[in-house]
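User: Hey, my collaborator sent me this sequence without any context and asked if I could get a structure. I don't really work with proteins. Can you help?
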Amino acid sequence: MEHRETSPGQATDFGPRAWARDLLESDRRYFEADAELFPVPGAVIVALRGAEALAAGCVVHRIDAAQAASDADAWLVDVERRLRALRSSRARVYLDAPLAPLERALERRGYRLRVEFGFARAAGDSAGGIEIELLPAEDESGWSARRVLMHRVGRGPDGHSMDPELWVAMERRKHRAGYMRPYLIRTGGEIVGAVCTAPCGSLLRMKNLVVDPAHRRRGVATATAVCLARLAAEEGFAATGCFALDGEAGLVVYPRAGYRLLARQTEWVRDFEGAATAMTRRSQLLEPGEVEAYWRDGHVIVKGLFDLQESRAWADESDRLWASVPADRGNPRVQWRGRVDGGEIADRIDPVLDISPVFEALARDTRLIAAASRLLDGTAIPFKAKLITKRPGTAGYGLHQDYPYWEPLGLPADDYVNALVAFDPFDGASGTLEVFPGFHREQAPAPPGAPLDADESLVDGRCGLLLVLEPGDVAIFHSLTPHRSGPNRGAHSRQGLFLTYVPSRYSGLQERYERERIDRAR
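Assistant: No problem. I've predicted the 3D structure and written it out in structure-token form, which is a compact way to encode the shape of the chain:
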């Protein structure tokens, strides 16, 4: 990823006025990285699909004063209607200049005001108190360390509450989109915080600075701000800058590090009536009876968790992946299945999250995380994911349990929760899963020569249950639940993402498993 970026005419415009302009623009680019943009009269709505539960997941900015202020109340009503259609739980409006008519309308409609102050300083070295190191954190171990840190911090750098797993997934998407580069902060041999950098014109932006609560008030933030000025000089920028929230520590930290106040923007937030309650209800997916059914039967189905628009977007992402991933025998992430008329066809991409930010965001969606957490120890992180596309004529899978594949990792079977997200209809014609309720309490005997399968005699004379799913439905099942599937004899593909979750105390297990699995395949 190329980190340096300037716009035409900015290379020689290095004064404080340019720094302020670039600082404000850097925030707009942050929201827009990897997001969908919806131009509306007088503004742009930015939506990061799969991250709507985060405050940064849906914002309104680039506001045109003339259009927004001419009939501010009517303009706000229209914007709120559009936000609700995008399933945002709140309206979050950014103003980078005073706009009295709109501000009065925001107050009338119950918006809460928060001021953000923009600071910048010239790039270069200076005394910075304690010694710190910035460690590039773009690999899996870096993201894992960042997730652990965000669980400790408990609140986003933007001052809003957040789901740590979803927050880090969002940061990862911003990084992959080319907006920012992640670092871990180390001092005395210990990781004490994290920060990102993002280029914008003459300025290297400091973004998403967090310090481990156990290391606050020890000069870590000040030293990091100084270090960023040094890094900016090394990378050829004229300045570095950041925002500080009104009433928070940054207002003291950044001036101490040589930064001066150059810009100001206001954030106006309103939670939609009933939206917060609806989001909470949506996050608490499994009622006590459903949890009981999972442990009794080994599976439970959550109907309509995702809408048709989301399902179609995931089906499109599946098509994109199959068009871009080489489907040849030498690719260890592509697996093959027999066809009912002879021959074989590629039907599975595994692993998939590392090449699809869209599916990574789905895996970390707060609704799925919340459901899996209820069935684990109160926490859940994605362990693995596979995209299975069963095209017409593709054969099915024999009887098996998933746990034998993971048993060498040493976790108990109860610490794995599977979740199948359907993109297309799953039914008898398309070769849906057939599960056998109540057989998830022990590992099944394997047939001769196939140690990872389950002997069909286990279910002889037993009536299995076909999991009939519509797009957007989710089937959750235990790692020991025996299941199989028939061929797709229908006219359409049967696509779905098969996810597995484990408790967050096993952070790093995913990277270890996938690395070992691909190495074995090679």
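In plain terms: The longest helix spans residues 16-32. You can pass these tokens on to your collaborator as they are.
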